[in-house]
Specification:
heterodimer; A: 207 residues; mainly alpha; Rna Polymerase Sigma Factor, Chain: A; Arc Repressor Mutant, subunit A; B: 170 residues; two-stranded antiparallel ribbon; 2 strands
């Protein structure tokens, strides 16, 4: 964990200062949770649960399983509060990390052939107009589910959760370069598989 | 098209493939030069438009907002969990529980009276030959993994969280 820079005389950057504050606030909450403070726990649940369910939903493609993951993750937070070391991570980073690891555990328990093949897409960009919003959502969801899990994870964290590249790397425990590679491969695959849909959003797309 | 322009377009393509079309997410060190390229180059503008269109489609993958019911269930599970982790099970002739999802460490010191009562109950179970059954039942109901420990001269059982791939993050 980086120091505050006092040894080298370097000033703490605003980002580092803000993270340090966040970790301090987290530590205070986790101390309360360690003592069984339900209100503090509720605060953490309220602040983090949508991130957990969204990532889990995008990783697993299933609402019920995403809810299961959320329960597992927050119960683990509750149970491990006593061991919390606020100097090592923010609660939000921990939540993301435990969520993606829990999702990977689940995905590995699934049979590989459970994901349906994408239906053949025929026609031009105007097919976009024929699809109802819900259908398109489902189509995109299925295209996402077809991506290798680590590419999907990188996209879920970077694109949907707006995490910085370094935070995604920290969450996935890989280098920034590895995250960049996963993102690029994931987006290129989606660019191909969803071509008939995204081209409809180009400025010069036919009506 | 010059070699340099080709190289710049290739770099823009890589950035768009990785980061998407939202410029604030691009690496700061390259943002200005890429923006300048986009201003002057039609091919670059086209690439940006394509990336933006793809972003828009990717955005459609459904996320999930947690329901109040889910939040309530999590809070209720935690509160029940807290009650369970304080349970003292007397040591007797019992086997260790199978590895199952567990709860956190016991951190509540029980009054001596509770220990004495538990110990007496254990003696009763031992005499009645019910020890293993009772213990197994307790593990089954609570979903705990267990480990023996010593405290105050009385052996009892502590419940630990299961070890998973996420261990060590804290």
């Amino acid at each position: 964990m980086p120091s505050d820079g006092s040894k080298s005389g370097r000033e703490t950057s605003p980002v580092e200062a803000s993270r340090s504050e966040a970790r301090k606030a987290d530590q205070e909450l986790m101390d309360r949770v360690a003592h069984g403070d339900a209100q503090a726990f509720q605060q953490l649940v309220d602040a983090g649960i949508d991130r957990v369910t969204s990532v889990a939903r995008r990783m697993l493609g299933d609402d019920a399983e995403a809810e299961d993951i959320a329960q597992e993750v927050f119960l683990r937070l509750w149970r491990q509060a006593e061991k919390w070391d606020g100097g090592r991570a923010q609660v939000s980073t921990w939540l993301y990390r435990v969520t993606v690891n829990s999702c990977i555990d689940r995905l590995r328990g699934r049979r590989e052939d459970t994901v349906e093949e994408l239906p053949e897409v025929r026609g031009e960009a105007t097919q976009q107009q024929k699809l109802e919003e819900g259908d398109l959502q489902e189509y995109v969801d299925r295209a996402m589910q077809k991506l290798p899990e680590r590419q999907r994870m990188a996209l879920a964290l970077f694109h949907y959760e707006n995490l910085s590249m370094s935070d995604v790397a920290e969450t996935m425990d890989i280098s920034v370069e590895a995250v960049e590679s996963l993102l690029a491969r994931g987006r290129r695959t989606l660019k191909q598989s969803l071509k008939s849909h995204w081209t409809a959003y180009l400025p010069d797309a036919p009506e | 098209m010059t070699k340099r322009e080709n190289k710049d377009l290739k770099r823009l393509e890589d950035i768009l493939d990785t980061y998407g079309a939202v410029r604030s997410r691009w690496p700061e060190s390259e943002r200005k030069s890429l923006e300048s390229l986009i201003r002057r180059d039609v091919a670059a503008q086209r690439m940006l438009a394509e990336a933006a269109a793809l972003d828009r489609i990717i955005d459609m993958a459904p996320g999930m907002i947690a329901s109040q019911d889910l939040k309530d269930r999590i809070l209720a599970a935690a509160m029940n969990d807290s009650e369970k982790e304080a349970r003292v099970i007397p040591f007797g002739s019992r086997k260790r529980g199978a590895s199952q999802p567990g709860v956190g460490q016991v951190r509540t010191y029980w009054p001596a009276a509770a220990l004495a009562a538990s110990f007496a109950f254990g003696l009763y179970l031992g005499v009645a030959g019910l020890g293993d059954q009772a213990y197994d039942g307790a593990v089954e109901v609570s979903g705990l993994s267990s480990e023996a420990s010593e405290w105050g001269g009385v052996t009892y059982w502590l419940d630990y969280g299961s070890v998973t791939s996420t261990e060590g993050i804290l």
